[in-house]
Amino acid sequence: MKTIAKSRLNELLKALDKEYNILVPFKEESVSKFVPWQEGVDPYFEENTLLPPKDILFPQTEKMYGFKVKDKSVEIEELTQEKGQQIIFGLRSCDAYSIDCLDKVFLTKGYEDGFYRQKRENTLLWALACTKPQDSCFCESIGIDPREAVCADVQIYDLGEEWGFTARSAAGEELLQKLEGLFTDKDAEPLPVQGFSITVDMEGVPEKLANMFDHPLWEEVSRKCLGCAACTYLCPTCHCFDIAGSVKGGQGYKFRCWDSCMFSEYTRMAGGHNPRPSKKERVRNRFLHKLYYFVERYGQLLCTGCGRCLAKCPVNMDITAIIRKIKEAQQQ
Amino acid sequence: MSIDNAWEPKILVFACNWCTYAGADLAGLSRLQYPANIRILRVPCSGRVNPQFVVRAFLKGIDGVLVAGCHPGDCHYTTGNYFTRRRFLLMKRLLEYMGLEPERFQTRWISGSEGPKFQQVVTELVQDIKALGPNRKLRDA
Amino acid sequence: MNEISLQMREIARDLLSKNEVNLVLGWEKGSHWYKSAPLFINKVEDVDRLVFDEFCHNNLSKYLVDLAHHEAKVAIFVKGCDSRGINRLIQDNVIKREQVYVIGIPCRGLKDPDDAVGKKCGEPVKDAVKCQECRYPNPVVHDIMVGEQVNATARGQETAALIEKLEKMTQDERYNYWSRQFECCIRCYACRNVCPACSCRECIFDRAVPDWLGKANNLAENQFMHLTRAMHVAGRCIECGECERACPMNLPLMALNKKIIKDIEELFGENDAGIDPEKKPPLGHFELNDPEKFM
Amino acid sequence: MTNPLVPIRGKIIKVVQETPDVKTFHVSTIEGKKPFTPKPGQLAMFSLPAVGEAMFSITSQGPDHLELAIKEVGQLTSALHEIEEGQECGIRGPYGNGFPLDYCKGKDLLFIGGGIGLAPVRSLINYCIENRKDFGKLTVVYGARSVADLVFKEDLFENWPKVDNMEVYTTIDRAEEGWNGHVAFVPAYVEELGLKPMTTITCGPPIMIKFVLQALAKMGFNDKDVITTLEMRMKCGVGKCGRCNIGSLYVCLDGPVFTLEQLKKLPPEY
After folding, report:
1. Is D79 left (phi over 0), alpha (psi -120 to 50) or beta?
2. Inter-chain touch D6–A247, beta carbons under 8 Å
3. I need a surface site. Which of C280, D63, D135, D206 has the fewest CB within 10 A?
4. Ranges under pLDDT 70 in chain A
């Protein structure tokens, strides 16, 4: 394993900064999120970030193309995207898994999303092995190894006084080679993972949900939902978006922006018909999507066990409690 | 693009149909000169003006807003302007609290016979806003 | 289990088994010891899930908006602040007094769940900011009361101090402060959806036509949203502090709401929303001699 | 074009007023070519960039254009009804699965449409007429509220009846002066005609579909032979944006065409 003293992390970041835009976890007041690193930005590794790194690859609002309209003419202008290489430094296994989910959504099943692909191709993931699960974490129950992230190019380990690095992809290997001079090679044992306070048994849940669409459980669990989007906007995997535009004096642009299946107008059609008219249908769709539909379509859960939703939901809607209820539910 | 040399403020006047709009009309009929920076939006009553109309106007590029209606006691609907008075007293304070320059948002009573007052109010308002420069605080970039 | 929780269960059991109500709104323990969540009970078997503790933040009166057309009577547990929400909804004709059976709980103030994260049950936890300046710990409307009346005691001034600090700033400093806050907003609408004063059937923020609020997340749209929201609840905010608690980005929304309340008092005299159901809201009435400072 | 979410420039070369609230728009590229070649039943994402973008079924195509029949219901469609020939626009597609042509080949086909619901069905009817020898007997049952609301009148009364081995039955909901044809709701007419079970393609308002399906079941039609096309709110058209899901399927990708047999296995959320 390649190691560097924690006190020398800045040297590593500075070396990377020459070729890459580095995004590091950072906490300001009570909000932690990934921000571009520069001299003076002190990365925050104490706990996972409040905001997931999702918006680096899938921004909350993203311009897609410009247009000009005049009389009967319409011109469409493709916008050039920045092509810079970037590193997401210090994301956790749960968030790395979420990027795996986003890859499946945006890059497979017939169409490749150009906006996502451009950013993803130029992004390396340096994942940080988690040792200290927070109160609301349950990634292990989802089948995620907090110490080994999927999709990682480099895996970072907390060794106590040092950071350890192991390449997990050819690109990661090459980069570590290039920085050879900064590291000391040594055999080291990463710190162990402390216990999880939340565990949940996922065994058979997607299969059981296949027959639970009409179960009274959904009415019961959805009652307290307020229909806000705190859960979906903090979720590292939620990827629904809307397309809208802005126009001023014959010129404008189209953008896409996050949308939430919890909003009533999300599925409402121009004629007024709404296939998911009340919060029961919307809450049901959200959990079925995460725990069953996505599994059926892409072969994996759309939940990472990061626990952000249950920590921040104003009414403490707890996905693990719902999973337990699903397990206990009588088949109809 | 250097807009600042040629910059002229855009000012939106919400004018009550029964008093201020008539006052503006009178100012016009009397050939009273006032700056061409104002756009008048006729409303049935100054009480019709919603706080979000004002915020939206700023966001869409207006540099100053005037809400103008009948003098207290003269409302065509008896009491509309009393509500206006409370609402915008409060909102003016809120906009100030948000960091907006207080001169940018004003409320005035201008009756149908006060053509000269209309001229005076908008002239002063335009002067105030010109001194402040373009509104860059509440603006949709 | 504390005494109040036990009494709550007895009351709920009694009401449900005698069919006096067919729904009880209360709280139950949530995912952690420092989380309590809203609970809807319509079966006697579930009453033992009811609890009251220092983390029962949710103002359940919000749910009465959804239940405006509920076919039978609803029982609801309220703290002092929540009870003002009931009066407000009655004032706005959203609900009728006879639709609800109000069970009041005098409240000694709640704890801040964010401060409890990572702690063990029993460790000291900070007081919730929203409770620091509470002036109505005892429910102002109730059919019965559980527990002893408590005295209002200010335990902190965080929000008031922030407002004063902001008032003393220059315009540009204030603008920069609020811009930084609004730039953080993720537009999840938790603040609106948790608020008992936000009772419109359709919110202008949701309407596609006319598009008052665009969907892009940028400073301008966020300013529009927060200014509109603040003005909309002006004179109707009951100071339950739920918006600020619900905000995942911790925006200081009560520093907006309380500033407006302060201004209303200065301009139009004392007014606490939701105390007296007969009293008209300050922007819903006027005095002939109201100040005209802007003239 | 590398990005499926960015439209190409199009031009509306012709506008046909079908009914008081339905117009058919003929769309070419600005070079005068067909924007793309869809299969019958596929969809196009059409936009007036300054107003909005929405998904429409492609009702027909010519050598140099696509045809979209659009009813005025919302913001974009109202704006569309105001425009004139020569207006430029954005268009992208084709999206969706389209009708199962191979399955239909060699069979007698029954088409049941109501109101604007004839628009997607017409793409397949026209395909069958162009490839007449590949299909058996063609029967069309179509109805609308009134004579004025009947779409594609030229096809219904002029073109289609002349086609070899093709029958067209038209009906309106309530009798009106000057109409000598049939008066009945579409589902009732279908039953009255007493057609033998065959492969059926149907589209119309939800209430009509509901009763047509009941009628067909009563008449012994097989679920896998009953084909319909669904409508959902869509934004991306390529299975990413999330809102048009029914269970784990996306209507924009895996639909809009489903057999009744498939629909019965899906959650009833459309």
Report:
1. alpha
2. no
3. D63
4. 332
